[in-house]
């Protein structure tokens, strides 16, 4: 597209592309915008170096290669702040500039937003299901090594308390946490000693190294014996025990009763093992103190993409739109606001032609904000941005009508009203 547009002179026409989702993933009632900060960090570094251009020379002409060698995104970007909820048709991102510069960054934009928003939406559902109990992201071994860092960031934005990924802590300052694996317990196996004896030796080693506030994994062999060994090794001030298998509801009740009988009344119970929002919700009545979630989280809990698209909606100020069956788009650059009741519960999202906000007699909040101007990032991307996004998700979930937090399949939590250009 770039080569053809450069050849026929259309590459420098002024355009607007929008990122939106025609529909939410099956069964979802809201989406969570995540990835904005990562995109704004990536844009200034998005270049085509000599190696890239040498590869592209296999099929591109010299004019196109020269354009790419000097490529710098110099357009404007508006959109929803990271952490905002979104709904079908929400104009999540508006990218303005020449056709050439906007089309070159399409895959970068979509790959970031489709991945991060899918993870954040799944994480938000898990946070809602867990109530006030903290969740730890533990999915690094279930996804690509680079995606793991982005997933930890998205989960933290959505309300997870910590991650087991140390690179996410180094890069984004996300709190970290984790526990030992079954391998450490089995490492202490001996031919001349039964499992319960070697398990106790493993626990003593872990406590000696990390202190009594550590978390001991108690289900390698027998849970009841494991709990007894854990308290024997650390005493009644043991930080936590973790259960990673079995009938978690039954086991947590038994373990809580056993811990209390042994005097370890403050010892917490951490559960893990293929958890998702549904199994977390099923455990709400059980004495669980925190959850470790891996595979389901980093795969979007059944929705690994947010289904976002990047569509041309304006050329030289003229609205343009697709008419393809079931893939229609609405022409013209857009902005949005969200209407709520006096109580703060949101009732409607209104998408309108940019610069022409409709009057409202009800409380409303503008959603579209400036993110970049002339290629320069104008939104906050420092350390406080992640905390702000985290607060925005929490307030957004709090503002949903109660049925919007249901895990069961259903319509979007609020309707989206489109005001035509």
From TrEMBL:
Transmembrane segments: none annotated. GO terms for biological process: NAD+ biosynthetic process via the salvage pathway. Pathway: Cofactor biosynthesis; NAD(+) biosynthesis; nicotinate D-ribonucleotide from nicotinate: step 1/1. Transiently phosphorylated on a His residue during the reaction cycle. Phosphorylation strongly increases the affinity for substrates and increases the rate of nicotinate D-ribonucleotide production. Dephosphorylation regenerates the low-affinity form of the enzyme, leading to product release. InterPro entries: Aldolase_TIM (IPR013785), N/Namide_PRibTrfase (IPR041525), NAPRTase_N (IPR040727), Nic_PRibTrfase-Fam (IPR007229), Nic_PRibTrfase_pncB (IPR006405), Nicotinate_pribotase-like_C (IPR036068). Its EC number is 6.3.4.21. It holds the Pfam family NAPRTase. GO terms for molecular function: nicotinamide phosphoribosyltransferase activity; nicotinate phosphoribosyltransferase activity. The keyword Protein biosynthesis does not apply. GO terms for cellular component: cytosol. Keywords: Glycosyltransferase, Ligase, Phosphoprotein, Pyridine nucleotide biosynthesis, Transferase. Residues 136-333 form the Nicotinate/nicotinamide phosphoribosyltransferase domain. Residues 1-114 form the Nicotinate phosphoribosyltransferase N-terminal domain. It catalyses: 5-phospho-alpha-D-ribose 1-diphosphate + nicotinate + ATP + H2O = nicotinate beta-D-ribonucleotide + ADP + phosphate + diphosphate. Belongs to the NAPRTase family. NCBIfam families: NAPRTase_put, PRK09243.1-5. Catalyzes the first step in the biosynthesis of NAD from nicotinic acid, the ATP-dependent synthesis of beta-nicotinate D-ribonucleotide from nicotinate and 5-phospho-D-ribose 1-phosphate. This is Nicotinate phosphoribosyltransferase.
């Amino acid at each position: 597209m770039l080569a053809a547009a450069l050849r026929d002179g259309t590459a420098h026409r002024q355009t607007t592309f929008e990122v939106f989702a025609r529909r939410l993933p099956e069964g979802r009632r809201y989406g969570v915008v995540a990835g904005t900060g990562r995109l704004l960090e990536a844009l200034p570094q998005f270049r085509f170096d000599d190696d890239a251009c040498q590869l592209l020379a296999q099929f591109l002409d010299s004019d196109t290669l020269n354009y790419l060698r000097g490529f710098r995104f110099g357009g404007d970007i508006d959109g929803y702040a990271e952490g905002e909820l979104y709904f079908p048709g929400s104009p999540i991102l508006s990218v303005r500039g020449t056709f050439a510069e906007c089309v070159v960054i399409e895959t970068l934009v979509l790959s970031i937003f489709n991945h991060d928003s899918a993870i954040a939406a799944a994480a938000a559902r898990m946070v809602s299901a867990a109530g006030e109990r903290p969740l730890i992201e533990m999915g690094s071994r279930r996804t690509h090594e680079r995606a793991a860092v982005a997933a930890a960031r998205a989960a933290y934005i959505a309300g997870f308390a910590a991650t087991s990924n140390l690179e996410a802590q180094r890069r984004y300052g996300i709190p970290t946490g984790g526990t030992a694996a079954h391998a450490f317990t089995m490492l202490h196996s001996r031919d001349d000693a039964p499992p319960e004896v070697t398990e106790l030796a493993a626990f003593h080693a872990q406590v000696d190294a990390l202190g009594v506030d550590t978390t001991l994994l108690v289900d390698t062999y027998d849970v009841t014996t494991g709990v007894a060994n854990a308290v024997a090794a650390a005493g009644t001030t043991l930080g936590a025990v973790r259960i990673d298998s079995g009938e978690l509801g039954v086991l947590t009740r038994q373990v809580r009763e056993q811990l209390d009988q042994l005097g370890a009344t403050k010892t917490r119970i951490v559960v893990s093992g293929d958890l998702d929002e549904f199994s977390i919700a099923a455990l709400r009545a059980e004495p669980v103190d925190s959850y470790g979630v891996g595979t389901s989280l980093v795969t979007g809990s059944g929705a690994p993409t947010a289904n976002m698209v990047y569509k041309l909606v304006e050329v030289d100020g003229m609205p343009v739109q697709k008419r393809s069956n079931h893939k229609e788009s609405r022409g013209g650059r857009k902005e949005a606001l969200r209407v709520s009741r006096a109580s703060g519960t949101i009732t409607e999202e209104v998408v309108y032609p940019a610069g022409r906000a409709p009057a409202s007699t009800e409380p409303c909040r503008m959603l579209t904000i400036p993110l970049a101007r002339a290629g320069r990032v104008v939104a906050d991307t420092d350390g406080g941005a992640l905390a702000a996004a985290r607060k925005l998700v929490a307030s957004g979930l709090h503002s949903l009508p109660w049925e919007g937090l249901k895990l069961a399949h259903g319509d979007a939590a609020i309707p989206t009203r489109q005001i035509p250009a």
